[in-house]
Amino acid sequence: MAxxxxxxxxxxxxxxxxxxxxxxxxxTAQLMRTASRSGTVCMGNTNDFKVGLTIxxxxxxxxxxxxxxxxxxxxxxxxxxxxxxLETGSTxxxxxxxxxxxxxxxxxxxxxxxxxxxxxxxxxxxxxTFEEERIPRADIAKNDxxxxxxxxxxxxxxxxxxxxxxxKSVQLKVAETEPGAKGNTAQGxxxxxxxxxxxxVVNVPIFIETGELIKVDTDDRKYLGRVN
Length: 228
What we know:
The protein has 228 residues and is of the alpha+beta class. It has one helix spanning 2-38, and strands spanning 43-45, 54-57, 60-70, 78-85, 91-97, 101-103, 108-118, 121-125, 132-136, 151-157, 160-165, 169-177, 191-196, 201-205, 213-217, 222-226.
């Protein structure tokens, strides 16, 4: 009898220990089913922050421009961020709790070709349907690395074009740079500024000349090498 009572007691303790995990799993499953039915986007948190990340809050879409994780000596950790509203162009400085959740922006992607400028707008064309989208140049990150006829991915939110994904690396011609002078290396100078065909300015080795095709990192705005 004592042995049976001990077994029943152990089983009750085990069931009680498993109850919270089962409840959490059930709750998670319910949330996932609700999200699936409602079309809710995936959730992220401040640990996922990176420059260029597109998020949703306050019924609008924002791009992370800057962020800083702060761990004070006292109190809870937090994250400072600078966000740009991709609908209005306004900026916002927002402080988040560390690990605070937010919905990733549900954006559609469409391959389009950069065609021309129309005032302050850059015009992109779908080469299959020939439909055009206009996006203010100021709203496009890294716009000075985009050249005419370049194929790019245009991001749309709720049917509206809001941003353009510029590749991490591009190949562009050097439109203007000063000649590399002999003796500069010996004097400690190894780089010089160069203006590319799209207007972007990057530092290049002193041996690079006007007219050369080079590869550039658009995130860091750095020279990666010559293109043969």
